[in-house]
From TrEMBL:
Active site: C346 (proton donor)
Protein name: Diaminopimelate decarboxylase
Residues found modified as N6-(pyridoxal phosphate)lysine: K51
Membership in a protein family: Belongs to the Orn/Lys/Arg decarboxylase class-II family.
An example Gene Ontology molecular-function term: diaminopimelate decarboxylase activity
Classification via CDD domains: PLPDE_III_PvsE_like (cd06843)
Cofactor(s) demanded: pyridoxal 5'-phosphate
Keywords: Pyridoxal phosphate
Stretches assigned to the Orn/DAP/Arg decarboxylase 2 C-terminal domain: 22-373
Organism of this sequence: Lihuaxuella thermophila
Orn/DAP/Arg decarboxylase 2 N-terminal domain boundaries: 27-275
InterPro entries: Ala_racemase/Decarboxylase_C, De-COase2_C, De-COase2_CS, De-COase2_N, Orn/DAP/Arg_de-COase, Orn_de-COase, PLP-binding_barrel
GO BP terms: lysine biosynthetic process via diaminopimelate; polyamine biosynthetic process
Length: 410
């Protein structure tokens, strides 16, 4: 048994049954993010895209390590400001309301990502009312196609994001009439869950080329390219992740050769920073076979953890054996078979892993889903069916003793 498993078992013993919890390893998070940021070459900056996980202890842990936060709603602007009144905040997202834009400006966000020509006009108008100049990046939806298959595409195809590359001449004409916005550069966030280091570099190269081309063509003095996030997590094989050292060594070359000297390349990663620090742990409530398929029914489900259904994948897990058995009758057990892990919801879609081979599983054992620190609790429909929420623990080692802080839900 590894150290992690011991901690989970102890938490289970100390807390209510049946056990169901999100557990976050803050020491791991700190190491991981520090490693990533410290290897970045000069003239590049890392922001954390907080929609991946905006729990307060996660934000507090990350804030001192990254350059700033990327936010996509006024709620996220407020969360950023609660954690750090000074940290740079960049504000994006389609469909910003006037109230949100005004509050963001008053909250001193450092950049607004402009997603349409109408939004550009509105920001100009609102900034004029406040008598300020707002620094912006134009979010451009490039024509594509992009290198290889990532899981999600935000650009290079019809989506609600950014300004169609074909509209650049119109935006430039509009910008010429603006007095209260300052164009600092361009924002591109085109794909998500990209796992290939070299293809990601090629994508960044395309971004830099495009920005240089527009800067020349329209005589712009810009200084920033935001390359978005989109660095992936390999959920199919946890031992083979995006290799950061390879990526940064290629990145260093790319910046040296292609990025104009006064420019900065920004990253706003979500998944890659927080996924690996999280575990979603569920106790097995029942084992049953139905029409030839073996089901493990656990405390919890996709209302806590929607990622596997939203991606239609089997989420990786380990089984943590629990020795206690409180009933006077025999404990049900399966050996060397394939199981499908489902939750407590009354819908056949409540599946977190399908037909996965296991050596042994008993009622009362724990299923530990790994890499659940990003887009897991945060994207789930928590109150569907009104089951209880899972506990949330944030673990940290202090003087060789680990402490679990439990979040109390408001
Ligand atoms: C979601 C999002 C990110 C973060 O994406 P990851 O795939 O989690 O790295 C970055 N930028 C924008 C604009 C986003 O919408």
């Amino acid at each position: 048994m590894n150290k992690w498993e011991e901690k989970i078992l102890r938490l289970k013993q100390e807390h209510e049954q049946p056990f169901c919890a999100y557990i976050y390893d803050l020491d791991h998070l700190n190491d991981h993010v520090s490693q990533i940021v410290s290897q970045l070459p000069e003239r590049s900056e890392m922001y954390y895209a907080m929609k991946a996980n905006s729990e307060r202890p996660i934000l507090e842990e990350i804030a001192p390590l990254v350059h700033g936060f990327e936010v996509a709603s006024i709620g996220e602007v407020r969360k950023a400001r609660e954690v750090d009144p000074q940290i740079p905040v960049i504000f994006g997202g389609p469909g910003k309301t006037d109230e949100e834009i005004l509050e963001a400006i008053r909250s001193r966000v450092s950049l607004i990502h402009v997603e349409s020509i109408h939004e550009l006009r509105r920001i100009e108008y609102l900034a004029g009312q406040l008598r300020v100049t707002v620094p912006i990046l134009l979010r451009i939806n490039l024509s594509g196609p992009f290198p290889d298959a990532a899981t999600l595409h935000m650009a290079g195809r019809p989506t609600q994001f950014g300004i169609d590359e074909k509209e650049i001449p119109m935006v430039m004409e509009q910008l010429g009439k603006c007095e209260h916005v300052n164009l600092e550069g361009f924002h591109f966030h085109s794909i998500s869950n990209h796992l290939n280091e070299f293809n990601h570099i090629r994508l960044l190269n395309t971004y830099i080329e495009k920005a240089k081309q527009w800067a020349n063509q329209y005589g712009l003095t810009i200084s920033r390219i935001n390359a978005g996030g989109g660095i992936g997590v390999n959920y199919q094989d946890l031992s083979r992740q995006f290799h950061w050292p390879t990526f940064v060594s290629e990145l260093r070359e790319l910046l040296r050769k292609e990025l104009p000297e006064t420019w900065t390349l920004m990253f706003e990663c979500g998944r890659y920073l927080t996924a690996s620090c999280g575990y979603y742990v569920c106790e097995v409530l029942d084992l049953k076979e139905n029409h030839g398929e073996k089901y493990a029914i656990v405390r919890g489900g996709t209302h806590h953890f929607r990622l596997p259904v939203s991606w239609n994948h089997s989420h990786p897990f380990r089984i943590l054996p629990v020795d206690e058995w409180k009933y006077p009758f025999q404990r049900k057990k399966w050996e060397d078979c394939e199981i499908t892990v489902v939750g407590q919801l009354c819908t056949p879609k409540d599946v977190m892993a399908r037909q996965v081979p296991v050596e042994e599983l008993r009622i009362g054992d724990l299923i530990v889903f790994q890499y659940t620190g990003a887009y897991s609790w945060s994207i789930s429909h928590h109150d569907f069916l009104s089951h209880p929420h899972p506990a949330h623990f944030y673990l940290r080692e202090i003087d060789h003793q680990w402490r679990a802080e439990r979040k109390v839900e408001s």
